[in-house]
């Protein structure tokens, strides 16, 4: 899902549309749970301390988290996934891996299935989602990240190495600043 918590807030309060929205806690002690794409251009990111986020985007609209709303939207997304496959590995409320190998005879190619799922999320939940399509979960995750917001990217079978080769090591899933430094060394 794209900027999930922030997107749910904008969906439920249309006056927030197009505005820099931060879902987070106390300005001095909390962290950013989600940042709309409008506020990300100021450098605000998820997991950033709220104090730092407010300094980067002083005009941002801070919305307190509503866990029940996010859980409900997540349940809706997972119900859509279940219409296409029962091979679902949830990573969080807003992210999952789907194995659609056995679903292709019913729903089409993996790219066609991803398009159908994204459209059902758009019309049924009034939210956007991005999809990465690849033969390995690791590559699909990176492709999905590169397709955001509201896109999809397919890495053809047998081309994972070529797809990954030009990317910085920091793009690899799970590689943070410290690991990046170690890998570069």
Q: In angstroms, what separates the terminal alpha carbons?
A: 34 Å
Q: From the 3D structure, determine the CATH topology of the largest domain.
A: Alpha-Beta Plaits
**Order of helices and strands, N to C?**
HEEHHEHEEHHEHEHH
Total domains: 2
**How many beta-strand runs?**
7
Uncertain ranges:
none
Helix content: 40-55%
Strand content: 5-15%
| Major β-sheet annotation | 3 strands, mixed
What structural class is derived from the secondary structure elements?
alpha/beta
Q: CATH homologous superfamily of the largest domain?
A: Reverse transcriptase/Diguanylate cyclase domain
Q: Give Rg in angstroms.
A: 18 Å
Short structural description:
The chain contains nine helices and seven strands, in the order αββααβαββααβαβαα.
